[in-house]
Design a protein that fits this description.
heterodimer, A: alpha/beta, Nucleotidyltransferase, domain 5, 5 domains, 6-stranded mixed beta sheet, 35 helices, B: alpha/beta, Rossmann fold, 4-stranded parallel beta sheet, 17 helices
């Protein structure tokens, strides 16, 4: 009971919620609306309405809560309460006895542990797995979240989708869609990803059990999401009445002074008028400048012919991209006749069929001479419709750009989901930059933002041209961008300023994150920009302004891939004439696609395959990690040092002594124990132990350990450690040995021989965060194997605490055996590597040095990229098979980590070998590789080599990697041709 | 690629090259600037901030590098591009700890950035104790070390007491005015060749603490917050989005552990390394002696503050170290290492149970010592309330402050509960007393 109305407002990232309590604590009014970021206006409207309709000018206890409400509340002196705290207040009141609250909002995810010590977990800088993420995915599927919920209920299987962050998930979902996975299954998989993200990211080892309450929009509206939570947590959570309003209710209950709503409205108006966000100069200072800009770009036009009068042979190019399908038809002289730009709604096949039917029926007089397809959906479209040629995207774009500017030396293409840039030197692609999975914020990023704010993309981008003070949003990932936009809006930025700011940040992302350039001179002088995103004048202008240069944007900027593919088909026809194999009108009309799921039985991965069958019995297989189910073993080089290392480690793992008087000791096969396994294995075997080694990582091993990971931004190989420890304990190993090691073996290649902090000290994290290690003997003392002489004594001191009967002499002998075994292992790897190289040279194969860390040998970590490369027919060797050729040499960075020193040494070696190229695997979140990648790149580029980097994380789809590798091979081939 | 770099030579020093130093701790660094000047270096601590610094950082440093590198290098380049300095008569100074964390590479990243910006003629001076790099124009001498350590002691002292008076001062601005006063006073003393001897220090420290204790303060008790983290983002307002200024608006008292413990930690690591892995005994003895010297300075500081019961004094290094015995190994030395974990326990022990653990986004050692230890700490010290905050050039203040507010709300809730508990206990106690009194009442004479 109180003597006045109490009003609680919850202003979240996408919605505004409001609850009014009367004197008897009854809810007399509540509302839930999207605010489209018009926070001040909406709040104002709401308060005015409540004042007029219900409160009628009486003073009210008002309190605001919610992440987007903070600035507003503080700026207008209205009491504010932190939203998680408000939730707790409401739960204490309405649902006493609750143990855990899971609340998902627009961009926030929270877990409250109420039992025992109150603990609250919120998502940090990485906001994957929230309502905004679900919206984003729904947009991708071309459906509403409600429809997604309905579809998910009918799912038959769940795909693995990386749950770390929305952008990652997108890279997983997109190819699934392109490859024909069912919407029902994808929908459920997305919900599962949200569940995994919430548990892995937030629970951090604290079990979710007892009475669980679900709150917030997504959990209220999406019954299937709740059921995914129930299923994973093995319990039945409750979504209570008013589950949308708990924050608002908590705010209403907050003791606060009486206010007149009319005063509050006034204060909000006053607040709104301040402009204090960080602004950039406007894109155009005057109308004249804008006009000049527009007329300059109007001149870059493609040659066209009249489709209605044209008779004769034509060439068809299709670009089946991540979100759209672009098609172009050209005449024998390369003139553009017909184009199509359409969304693929997640399933390109029916759309391409429509296009081809349309083409065949509208222009029966054209004789299709040949056709080519490029893009993500290349393989599928090719087999579905009998397209003659497949061409890697990068080459398609270069072919198109050349037709506008024959001496082009730099192309940047910003499409829906990718940024592709290539440098051209002497007519061949000399260097390729693709955006890593983390900064995909490109076209679809602008689009999602536009939609969230209630605009279509073209209209939204145009608004930016008029901005007076574009918002400075920096150049980082989408997730950060959301909150930056929120803050700017709070600070009074209007929609034009945000539009311009987003366009500028897309450009900055491309320049500083993807290309990493420091000025126009880094790019070249003859720049062609293309891709759908550059159709937006604001992006184009931002690009020119940022580089202070003038570029060419073809009028078919969004169609360049398709146009390039058509030109390629035309060009190939001149060299190697073929018959068109494209389906005829009749075949298209009777086109059918059957989709079937199965499991591949060719290796222990047992990939889930999706097999699409098309007319004529053509099949397309997707879901495969390697090419074996598709191509068989024919193309594979069979020279794969990663596979060889795996064999060696497996052999060690399988070897058990007949007699082990000291019992079992477990070693987790993770991080530095990959390379040191021979060392420790020999040591403990010699001491009379039966060494039990955890297996290579797999998805289920990872999931089993993920709930104890304390830091969601640590690298994936470190996260896997939790699964390995869990495996050892579950398999009844009573002693686990996992030492802390500041230093690694000194190979005399650097100034020091450190391990990185994560590798060095991860055992500490295990001890502090995996409760089960307390039920066993977990030996994780500090050891330095680099101190050959001191090591036996130090090891003896450590082990004797656990094994009092150990004798110094036997430890000394075991150490000798360990160092010997390690040396033998390394020599074995080097010898085998050398023989692969020799064999490759005899067979005329390309040699790819897949450089990374020893623990990248793990198949769950490298996602089979080694096999993929071998499948292209190249030999795959490792950096440690080459680095020993070199001596220490000065580097431009402090060369102080053992594993990283090998990278520099092997890069220097590769630079001297004409038939070797380097591909570097970089784990997402690896801070040290921020340093090594630049240095390795510099070493290679100074000798005219192409540097290729592949960022890996939980991501399981290899589509982007494949494009990247194919581009690399195409570029190397071109280079070789030029050299020949 | 090449490690050919321009050395800072004696001639450059004699020619009066301006030596730019990035800022981290306002008070400490202004004294350090003075010390360097007195030793013949034309040192200038940079104060430029704002979007220009960030833009330069993003432009010239790999964007995945941690935020301290982006800001420090950004601050340098922003200064160099400002036109304020003769680009042929300027040098840059940066510390290099030589540990296994990325931070040891800042100097190389800085040189790369200079090269990219076409400024590779500018010499970069490495301040390190590991002999990583030497320059003929800059020598770390024993007197210089003593003067630097003394300055850090003053800095820690002022930081410690001022943070305990500012939230309670009855006259707003007293504390900051006193900081100004002492900054001027100490620099005045330095100019006259005073203030750096042990005797002067003891006297100054006593006077400083006394001065601050004389500030008129209210007697209320505010929520106590501790700040730990990666050294740059913990201390630098540029790095932590003005964290201290924000906390000053939140009706709480915050404590930042001093920089002395970090210095001691870095020296002690060498001793620990030899203990754990073996190595030169001579080096061990030398480091132990050095450590002992710094500890003696620390003791002087502790004694001065502890003389005033109103203040929570800094904690002795050996005590801090003892707090993590059995929690994390002393071999965990990269970045802030086990010290970060220990400082959280130290703060909790001193009543600062609500802790902000600041770290650059993706900071490697903090995966271990910060976020990786929180779970363990809640077991060791139930009631500890830690919020890890990531700092990143694009992470927004809104998000960071929201999380801190949550931490504060939980803290206030716990305080209210504790107060209620106390009241309950008191009532029970009163009731018990009353019952006891009743029992013990003079019995009426039953024989009557």
């Amino acid at each position: 009971m109180s003597d006045c109305y109490r009003l609680g407002l919850d202003i979240g990232s996408t919605t505004i919620k409001c609850v009014l309590l009367d004197q008897d604590d009854h809810i007399v009014y509540s509302c839930y609306e999207r605010h489209f970021s018009l926070i001040t206006q909406k709040t104002r409207e709401l308060l005015t309405k409540i004042d007029a309709d219900i409160v009628k000018g009486k003073p009210v206890q008002l309190c605001i809560s919610g992440s987007a409400g903070m600035g507003l509340a503080l700026g207008s002196n209205i009491p504010f309460v932190q939203e998680v705290y408000a939730t707790k207040v409401a739960v204490d009141r309405y649902r006493p006895g609750t143990d855990v609250v899971i609340e998902l909002g627009g961009e926030d995810a929270k877990i409250l542990f109420l039992k025992g010590t109150l603990e609250v977990r919120m998502n940090g800088s990485c906001a994957g797995g929230t309502g905004a993420f679900i919206d984003q995915m729904a947009t991708l599927l071309g459906i509403t979240p409600d429809e997604m919920n309905r579809l998910a209920a009918k799912a038959e299987r769940t795909y693995t989708i990386a749950s770390r962050c929305g952008v990652f998930a997108k890279t997983d979902v997109q190819p699934l869609l392109n490859q024909g996975a069912k919407h029902t299954d994808v929908s459920r998989s997305i919900f599962m990803a949200v569940v995994n993200q919430t548990i892995a990211g937030l629970a951090q080892g604290r079990p979710i059990e007892g009475n669980v309450v679900y709150l917030g929009g997504p959990l209220t509206f999406l019954s299937e999401l709740r059921s995914c939570f129930d299923e994973t947590l093995k319990l039945k959570g409750v979504c209570p009445e008013n589950s949308l309003y708990y924050v608002a209710i908590g705010a209403a209950w907050q003791p606060s002074p009486l206010l007149l709503l009319s005063d509050c409205v006034e204060a909000i108006d006053a607040f709104h008028s301040t402009e204090s966000y960080r602004a950039l100069p406007p894109l155009f200072s005057s109308q004249e400048e804008l006009n000049a800009f527009l007329s300059r770009h109007a001149s870059a036009k493609v040659k066209k012919a009249d489709p209605d009068t044209y008779r004769g042979r034509v060439f068809v190019g299709i670009d089946s991209g991540s979100t759209t399908i672009k098609s172009a038809v050209i005449s024998e002289n390369g003139e553009l006749l017909f184009t199509r730009y359409q969304s693929n709604s997640g399933d390109p096949v029916p759309h391409v069929r429509d296009f081809l039917l349309d083409l065949r029926s509208k222009y029966p007089q054209w004789e299709i001479a040949s056709s080519a397809v490029t893009g993500y959906g290349e393989d599928m479209i090719r087999s579905a419709f009998g397209v003659n040629l497949g061409i890697v995207e990068t080459i398609a774009h270069y072919t198109a750009a050349k037709s506008f500017m024959p001496d082009v030396d730099f192309i940047i293409d910003i499409g829906g989901q990718d940024i592709k840039c290539f440098k051209i030197r002497g007519g061949v692609i000399d260097n390729i930059f693709l955006n890593e999975a983390c900064s995909s914020g490109c076209g679809s990023f602008l689009q999602t933002f536009a939609n969230a704010l209630g605009y279509d993309i073209g209209e939204f981008a145009k608004l930016g041209l008029a901005s007076r003070k574009p918002v400075d949003l920096g150049s980082r990932c989408t997730v950060f961008m959301n909150s930056s936009v929120k803050q700017a809006q709070k600070d009074g930025a209007d929609i034009t300023d945000i539009s311009a700011g987003l366009s500028i940040s897309v450009v900055k992302n491309a320049l500083y994150k993807v290309i990493r350039c420091s000025g126009p001179e880094d790019l070249g002088h003859r720049i062609v920009v293309q891709g759908g995103t550059f159709l937006n004048d604001a992006v184009l202008r931002a690009f020119e302004k940022e580089l202070n240069t003038e570029v060419i944007r073809p009028d078919i900027s969004g169609l360049m891939g398709a146009y390039g593919a058509a030109l390629y088909a035309m060009d190939q026809q001149k060299r190697h004439p073929v018959q068109s194999t494209l389906l005829s009108y009749e075949e298209l009309a009777g086109f059918r696609q059957d989709v079937r799921q199965t499991r591949c039985g060719l290796c222990e991965n047992h990939c889930r395959l999706t097999i699409s069958t098309f007319p004529g019995g053509r099949r397309f297989i997707s879901g495969n990690r390697c090419d074996r189910p598709v191509k068989g073993e024919r193309a594979d080089s069979g020279l794969n040092l990663y596979a060889y290392k795996q064999q060696l480690l497996s052999r060690l793992r399988d070897s058990h002594p007949a007699d082990a008087p000291r019992g079992k000791i477990g070693l987790p096969l993770a991080l530095n124990l990959y390379e040191l396994l021979p060392f420790w294995h020999a040591l403990f075997t010699q001491l009379g132990f039966d060494v039990v080694v955890s297996p290579f990582s797999g998805r289920s091993l990872y999931i089993a350990g993920q709930s104890t990971i304390p830091s969601d931004t640590v690298c994936f190989p470190a996260k896997l450690v939790h699964g390995h420890i869990d495996w050892l304990i579950r398999n009844g190993v009573g002693t686990v040995f996992y030492p802390c090691m500041s230093y690694n073996i000194d190979e005399k290649l650097g100034d020091n021989h450190y391990n990185c902090p994560v590798v060095a000290y991860y055992p500490e994290v295990v001890a502090a965060n995996i409760p089960a290690v307390r039920s066993i003997r977990f030996i994780h003392g500090y050891l330095g194997i680099d101190h050959r002489r001191d090591f036996p004594g130090k090891l003896f001191a450590l082990l004797r605490q656990y094994y009092p009967d150990l004798e110094k002499k036997e430890v000394r002998r075991a150490c000798d055996a360990a160092y010997d075994a390690y040396e033998r292992y390394m020599q074995d790897v080097r010898r085998e590597g050398a023989s692969y190289i020799e064999k490759a040279r005899q067979e005329g194969r390309r040699i790819i040095v897949l450089a990374g860390r020893p623990y990248h040998v793990d198949p769950e970590t490298n996602h089979g990229i080694d096999r993929l490369i071998a499948g292209f027919g190249a030999a795959v060797v490792t950096e440690d098979a080459l680095s020993w050729h070199m001596h220490k040499e000065p580097t431009g960075v402090l060369n102080q980590w053992t594993y990283h020193a090998r990278l520099y040494a092997s890069a220097r070696y590769i630079a001297t070998q004409p038939d070797m190229d380097l591909v570097q695997l970089v784990s997402f979140g690896c801070g040290v590789d921020a340093i090594t990648t630049d240095e390795v790149r510099e070493i290679l580029e100074s000798r005219g080599k192409i540097y290729t980097q592949i960022k890996i994380d939980e991501i399981t789809n290899l589509g982007a990697v494949r494009i990247r590798l194919r581009s690399l091979f195409a570029a190397i081939d071109q280079q070789a041709q030029r050299g020949a | 690629m090449d490690s050919e770099h321009v050395e800072f030579t004696k001639e450059m020093r004699e020619a009066g090259y301006t030596i730019l130093i990035p800022n981290m701790l306002e008070f400490h660094f202004s004294l350090i600037e003075k010390v360097l000047r007195l030793n013949g270096y034309n040192a200038v601590v940079l104060h430029n901030s704002g979007p220009g610094v960030m833009a330069e950082g993003l432009k010239y440093v790999h964007n995945d590098t941690c935020v301290p590198a982006l800001l420090v290098i950004g601050q340098f380049l922003d200064a160099l591009h400002s036109g304020e300095y003769d680009l042929n008569k300027v040098a840059l100074m940066i510390t290099q700890t030589g540990g296994g964390c990325r931070a040891s590479n800042y100097i190389f990243l800085l040189r790369k950035a200079l090269k990219k910006a076409g400024l590779s003629q500018i010499p970069v001076i490495s301040v390190n104790l590991s002999g990583l790099e030497k320059a003929s124009g800059f020598k770390i001498t024993v007197p210089l070390i003593r003067q630097l350590v003394a300055s850090l002691v003053y800095g820690d002292c002022i930081m410690c007491v001022s943070n305990q008076t500012r939230p309670y001062e009855q006259h707003k601005g007293d504390t900051n005015a006193l900081i100004e006063k002492w900054n001027d006073a100490l620099i005045g003393q330095y100019n006259k060749g005073r203030g750096l001897s042990r005797r002067d220090m003891r006297e100054n420290l006593r006077a400083i603490v006394n001065d601050f204790d004389n500030i008129g303060r209210s007697r209320e008790r505010k929520t106590r917050v501790g700040i730990v983290g990666e050294i740059y983002v913990k201390y630098s307002s540029l790095g932590n989005n003005g964290l201290e200024a924000f906390l000053q608006t939140q009706d709480c008292e915050y404590m930042l552990p001093g920089i002395m413990a970090f210095i001691e930690f870095k020296i002690d690591n060498r001793v620990e390394d030899i203990r754990l892995y073996g190595g030169s005994r001579l080096k061990k003895i030398f480091c132990q002696l050095f450590l002992r010297y710094v500890e003696s300075m620390e003791r002087m500081l502790i004694e001065a503050v502890a003389a005033h019961p109103a203040f929570v004094p800094p904690t002795a290094y050996q005590h801090i170290k003892g707090l993590v015995d059995g929690v994390i190994g002393y071999g965990s030395k990269m970045g802030e290492g086990w010290l970060l974990t220990a400082e959280m326990l130290e703060l909790a022990e001193n009543g600062y149970e609500n802790i902000i653990c600041t770290q650059p986004f993706g900071c490697l050692p903090n995966h271990i010592n910060g976020k990786g230890m929180i779970r363990r700490l809640t077991e060791v010290h139930p009631g500890i309330n830690i919020v890890p905050i990531d700092y990143d050039l694009s992470a927004t203040k809104v998000n960071q402050e929201n999380r801190i507010r949550l931490m504060l709300a939980v803290a206030k809730d716990a305080e209210a509960k504790a107060a209620a508990q106390r009241q309950l206990l008191e009532q029970e106690h009163l009731a018990e007393e009353a019952a006891a009194a009743w029992e013990a009442r003079p019995k009426a004479d039953s024989s009557k």
